[in-house]
Amino acid sequence: MLSRFFLKRPVFAWVIAIIIMTVGILAIYNLPISQNPSIAPPSIAIDSYYPGASAETVENTVTQIIEQKMTGLGGMLYLSGNSSSSGSSRIELTFAPGTDPDLAWSKVQNKLQLAMASLPDVVQRQGVKVSKSTKNYMMIVGLISEDGSMDGLDLRDYAQSNLEKILSRVPGVGEVENFGSQYAIRVWIDPDKLTNYQLTMEDVILALQDYNVEVSAGQFGGAPAVKGQRLNTAIVVQHLLKTPDEFAAIPIRTNADGSVVRIRDIGRTELGTERYDIVANYNGKASAAMAIRQEAGANALETAKNVKEKLKEMSRYFPPGMKVIYPYDTTPFT
Fold first, then answer.
1. Cα(35)–Cα(218) distance, rounded to whole angstroms?
2. What are the two backbone dihedrals, phi and then psi, of residue 173, each rounded to the nearest 5 degrees?
3. Which value, to the nearest 10 degrees, does the dihedral of the CA atoms of residues 268, 272, 278, 281 take?
4. pLDDT, tens digit, for every residue of 10-25?
5. What is the CATH topology of the domain spanning 189-219+233-264?
6. Global pTM?
7. What CATH architecture is 35-132?
8. Are β-strands 173-178 and 285-294 bridged in parallel, bridged antiparallel, or unpaired?
9. Are 279 and 151 in contact (CB under 8 A)?
């Protein structure tokens, strides 16, 4: 009956067909585009780092503590946790399809605050990151030095210090995972010398914390000032230490005879990196790598385009010889 109705009214059938085609064409520009259809439920990731800890220690003191607090979340289907020997912990919470990712992120943040007090102090100082993004990598961005003037430490420090935060603000980017870390002062302790001086690692840590601080002693000429006072300046009696020699000179203990035991007496200091557990290479060359996950529901093609345009813009400020590479990119398939 319905087919006969349209056969007898071809003009009406054409009008209906044209309307459907027009609506379909307009809908194309509003559809999310990604490598896979957006049928997976939204997920929230919790990342933390416990430097120097084993996988078992991370599991017992970080991952399990956070997992225990993530109960009673409305719409949560399941969660999975991963603890690595590099000290990193990642927990992914998967919510029911249709759940608002922003609402789920807010719920996870509130639950995480209950667990923060039970986490180790070093983990709290490092910070715990909560992000809403897809599980799979959309693309991997790399940096190489074509003329060899920069090594892997230089490239990874530049990536984290200058590019990671900028790429995180690009529209459509949900998370930027940096495969590396920035420069840091490394203090290598000789256990035999430490024993000879009757010191412990706690003594060294306390000395580093006491002397590597920014201390303000107030203001010179601050209010209330005498009449006619024209000069007003801040007084800083100590800055954060910057060089290995400054760290080596930190006193640990003053003996009764007036002699001082310093960091250089029980070890050595050097400019290194925060973590040595990740090394990235590209065609045999040292490189830096950053994995980008797209935001849930974002257009993968637009996101990749925005990332590449931002890196092209930033490349004007790159050191000589530095080049951007894309060793992994899912958008050509899309």
1. 57
2. -85, 125
3. -130
4. 888 888 889 999 888 8
5. 3.30.2090
6. 0.69
7. 2-Layer Sandwich (3.30)
8. antiparallel
9. no
